[in-house]
Amino acid sequence: MDTNSINRKQKGLTLLPNILTTMSLFCGFFALISAIKGNFTLSAWSIVAAACFDGLDGRVARLTGTSSKFGVEYDSLSDLVAFGVAPAVLAYLWGLQGYGRLGWLAAFLYVATTALRLARFNALTHSSKSPSRYFLGLPCPSAAGIIATAVTFSQFIGLIGPVKTLSFLIMVYILSFLMVSSVRYYSFKDLKWFEQHPFYSVVLIILILIVIAVEPRVTLFTIGILYGVSGPAIMALRGVVPIKSRERAIKNEG
Q1: Taking the model in full, what pTM does it have?
Q2: Annotated domain spans of the chain
């Protein structure tokens, strides 16, 4: 293979993650337009699609060895639209308008904390060369996914009225706080089980897809909530374990 062919192949591999990032940006912008038009269901699923493309672009870049500073910055700008502005507009138009100033301030807070979360993530990434096992704060795609699936889940169970809007308002504030908090969330970057068991990995993925396909409006929202709660739960457990260890040490000394 000549040098020109190798260079063309390398450029093609470099282009692939950026194409996936662009698809994520497109889905985020389409979600924004759909929310403005009042098609909240389509907007919610577009945000979920954006999260899928966002999960692929970084993984493809790492697998092909084509990660770049440009790709990182482009990904962050895309994330701000797809997982910051789009979910905030969806949340405001779907459930927060009735709260007036408190509602649009909640939407703005969500956008601001998404931007802060992305800026902190980039700063930590540039300062450390090795990928971390944990995210500091709730990842913005996960927060956006919770908002999006909360819309579809509420439509599925027929949740309407003040209960819907109040729970949505509280959820937006909690998600905004979790994104900029010091709560750690498992990143799954060091998960080697799939590489060590390729056959069973395929079987497991098929089973997961079947479970999700049974009723995605329920399963995806449940998965999002469980991941959102996992960070504070792990932090609480880590706080309890040292206390019990100290109590046992004091009893042994006594």
Answers
A1: 0.85
A2: 3-253
